[in-house]
Each structure stands twice: as structure tokens, then as C-alpha cells.
Amino acid sequence: MPVYRQPMRGTSFSKSERALSGLGHGLDALELLAARRGDLPLGEIARALKMSKPGVHRVLATLRRRGYVEHGEGGIYRLGLKAWEIGCAVPALGLVQIATPIMERLTRAAEGGAILGVLDGFEVVYLQRVDGPNPIRVHAEIGARISAHCTSTGLALLAHLPADQLDAILPAQLAAVGPHTLTSHDALRRELARTRARGYAVNQGGWRVEVGGVASPIFGVDGIAFAAVCVAAPRFRMTRNWLRRVPPLVVQAAQQITAALAPAPSQLQLRLRRAGAERA
Questions:
Q1: Are residues 121 and 196 in the same domain?
Q2: Pairs from 37-41 (Cβ < 8 Å, separation ≥ 24)
Q3: Quick one: pLDDT at residue 135?
């Protein structure tokens, strides 16, 4: 665990030294949240880093503004999407690197394009796309943000949010993005219940009139659904036979990604422990 050490009394710092000290405090906070898997209150972070609460609050406020930390209900802090994006730059730990070969197999089996996404607030952010073999494809830009209630990826992730977290991000009004978007809170909650029960989400025309998809959640070692994989297709391909054949393939791919990710946090923990020991 990273440990912050107060400077000796009387020590004076130049402007550049203070900036480096602030950077160190920010990295310590990120490493602590990663090692403890987030959801820590301000007081516990301050005690672990041996810093004052006001000092920690300033550090966390900066990280929050940049998207590296999120401030949740009850005053707890957790890693934000930006920290996850940085983690993906490490090939051994990146979700995209782990998921891509599984998505490639999925596209061949399902004969459709595969998309990987995560939830950021009430939006889905697309992280990876693997095109299918068919010449007519669904085009989704990597990095694109789409309202979660109008895509199968979003529905799969919303379905596994705790009720209080869903309530916190649910807009007062659900925009009609496509011709078949769920715009009623009651209708959305019913669809999320169906999605949880069967293990996958189905969307037809919620985003674009001619587009549909099937998505299944990817779980972390803590049991939280943090990403989803989807097979997207033109709606004319989504026949009754397609809807029988493809969902089990998507669920299987999501389970394979979940299983492949399981060792990664333990490796991260080892790296953090080694780093902490070197600083001690």
C-alpha cells in the first residue's frame, strides 16, 4: 500500500518541487483505490496516505475533474473511467487486448460485427469494434458515446446496476433517440428485469431504425458488471432463427472475457505491493 510521508519540519519547497509532491500524492491516491478496489471514504484515504483530510480532498478534486476518480453516494471515492483507459495502455491488463481475440471468434461464429463498451454515467462508451464478414455492417465509432437506454450494450449494463446507482444516473426524461427507444421509466425497468433474467439484452431500433443488437455483461472479480460485448446487425438479419442462435454465442463470449480478466487484478495487486515496498 502506498504510504505518504510528511516532509521534515522546516523543509521548504520550490514551485516545481511542490508540483512533483502533488503528483506523488495523486498517484498514491490512485494506487490506493486500485489496491482496495475503490469505494473508500475520504477519511479512510487520508488515514492510509497519512495526509490531512483537506489535503486529500484537494488531490481527489483534481483527479475527479480529470476523470480519474469518481465521487459516489455516501461520500465514497472510486477509480474513474480515465484511470481505466490508462490501465488499458498496459497490454497485460487491458480489457481491449484481452477481449479482441474473443470478439474476433465471436464475429466469425455469429457472422456479425462485435462491439465492446463500458458505462460512463448514463452513456455507453465504445472501446473496441471488430467488423464481421458480411459486406453490410453496423458502423460504430470507437470512442463514441450513446445514451445507454437505446443500445443493447447499455441495457445489459444498466440491468446489473444496483437500484440506487440506477436511480442516481437515470435522467428525468428518456430521449427518443430511435423509433423504438424505451422512453418510459416503467418500460425501461421492465426491460432491464427481462435482461437480468435471461443474461443478455436485445435492442431493435432503439438507436437507429435499421440497426439492432444483442449484448451480454462482462463482470470483474468483484462481481460487478463493468463492460459488455455486443453483436450488432442490420435488423433484417435479426430473424427468429438469428435470435435463437446468436444470444448464446454473445453470452459465451462475455463469460470468456470475464474468465480471461480474472487473473489481471491479482497481477496488479502484486505490482502495487512491489512498488510500495520499494518506496518504504
A1: yes
A2: 37/222, 37/265, 38/76, 38/77, 38/78, 38/79, 39/72, 39/76, 39/77, 39/78, 40/76, 40/77, 40/78, 41/74, 41/75, 41/76, 41/77
A3: 63
